[in-house]
Amino acid sequence: MRRLRIKHQTGFHYPAVVSASYNEARMQPMDTQRQYLLHSRIEINPLTSRDSFIDYWGTRVTAFEILEQHEELTLSAESLIEIQPREHDPGDLTWEDLDGIGDRSVELSDQLFATVHTTPTEPIVTLAEEVRARAATPALAAREICDAIADEIEYVRGATHVASTAAEVWEHKKGVCQDIAHVAVSALRSIGIPARYVSGYVQPTSSFEVGQELSGESHAWIEWYAGDWTGYDPTNSLEINDSHVIVGRGRDYADVAPLRGIYAGKPGADLFVEVSMTREI
Fold first, then answer.
1. d(CA 33, CA 85)
2. pLDDT at 239
3. What is the pLDDT of residues 211-223, one digit of tens each?
4. Do 36 and 126 have their domain in common?
5. Same domain for 275 and 174?
6. How does pLDDT run across 87-139, given as a tens digit for each residue?
7. 155 in a domain, yes or no?
8. Residue 211 lies in a domain
């Protein structure tokens, strides 16, 4: 078991005074079978009222509007999370079991359709189909596909942006965790394996002592369905463990962006992000 305190500060520096902004934040971790949210709070500056709800995908959302002039928007979220060791059931569905499964489940159907971020190109489909042809089960295929994608894409900060698509990433073979997750989701869906995008945090180092505070960052990985949902981190080629903190799930990044909104003012806002993690147990 691990207990982690996560501090996440983010917001926008505007190029000039704005008269109003309307925003949604997804910065509070989920409660899941092996992950427990013990405490969480969000501070918003400028101070404003907010509404909180759980969205269609099960993610905690804070929605708010600021109807006064401001030059900067800052959100500070602090969460205390307890994570139990995660058990992984690879799933025992056969290819025949998976055939047409989206017609029998709305939840799975949602994770079979391509989105703007996850529309596969012919080379991505070819890779996935070649693995499917030799893999005995969907679970084995999913892992092999994820590992093959990780081998092909070089992790390079700044090579992409939040709107980059799987097609663009595969063409240039460079990107970050968000991009690798999008390519993996696109490949799995192309051969009928339901797959969803996961946003959260990851412990920055394996040697993380109790009481130690380290700089962290947001992270992205995927889950596929082959009888049960299996969490896999294609960037690091490993099953998720008690170092991964789940914040949101969806079809792609657009469903789980930590902060998004619109504002009335001069274009060109700069997003800033700072994350720290402290291990308490």
1. 10
2. 95
3. 999 998 899 999 9
4. no
5. no
6. 888 788 999 999 999 999 999 999 999 999 999 999 999 999 999 999 999 99
7. yes
8. no
Q: Which long-range contacts (CB under 8 A, 24 or more apart) does 211-216 make?
A: 211/278, 211/279, 211/280, 212/278, 212/279, 213/276, 213/277, 213/278, 214/276, 214/277, 214/278, 215/274, 215/275, 215/276, 216/6, 216/275, 216/276, 216/277
154 and 124 share a domain?
yes
Please report whether residue 206 resides in a domain: no
Tell whether 187 is covered by a domain: yes
Q: Let me know if 207 is exposed, middle or buried by CB neighbors in 10 A (0-12, 13-18, 19+).
A: exposed
Instruction: Please state, in angstroms and rounded to a whole number, the distance separating the CA atoms of residues 230 and 244.
Output: 13
Question: How many separate domains does the chain show?
Answer: 2
CATH code: domain of residue 268: 2.60.40.2250
Q: Residue 241 forms beta bridges with which residues?
A: none
Indicate the residue type of 99.
D
Which position has the token pair 């992984």? 88
H or E element: which one contains 9?
Answer: strand 2-18
Cβ-contact 23, 261 below 8 angstroms: yes
pTM of the model: 0.96
C-alpha to C-alpha distance for 170 and 160, rounded to whole angstroms: 11
What 3-state class would DSSP assign to 22? strand
User: Where in the sequence is the domain holding 68, given as residue range(s)?
Assistant: 2-84+257-279
Which residue do the tokens 């463990």 mark? Answer: 241
174-175/154-155 β-pairing:
parallel
Distance CA 131, CA 148 (A): 10
Cis upstream peptide for 204 (omega within 30°): no
Quote the tokens at residue 6: 């996560």
Residues 227 and 138 in one domain: yes
Lookup: tokens for 250:
């969806």
Question: Among all chains, which residue has been given the structure tokens 């979220």?
Answer: 77
